Amino acid sequence: MPIHVSETELLAVQDKTNRHLRLRELLLEHSSEANMVVVTLPIPRKNIVSAPLYLAWLELLTKDMPPILLVRGNQTSVLTFYS
């Protein structure tokens, strides 16, 4: 079964899609020769962005790039130390 992103959804999140396109341009310009790139994982808003569109954004950011580590926090400060 093919996965489909509707035209309505694409229009509704056009600004976010353009932002991801611009981020890709900047990653290619500044990080295409890096050994590894660390990027904050974009977090989709529930019931606004479908899973297929979200995965398309991730594919857009990472395709033909050096290895990329997508990281995400939970907005909680943590202090880690070893004694």
Automatic annotation (TrEMBL):
GO terms for molecular function: sodium:potassium:chloride symporter activity. It holds the Pfam family SLC12. One of its GO terms (cellular component) is membrane. It is a multi-pass membrane protein. It comes from the Eukaryota. GO terms for biological process: cell volume homeostasis; chloride ion homeostasis; potassium ion homeostasis; potassium ion import across plasma membrane; sodium ion homeostasis. Keywords: Membrane, Transmembrane, Transmembrane helix. This is SLC12A transporter C-terminal domain-containing protein. It is found in: Membrane. The keyword Nucleotide-binding does not apply. Residues 4-83 form the SLC12A transporter C-terminal domain. It comes from Rhamnusium bicolor.
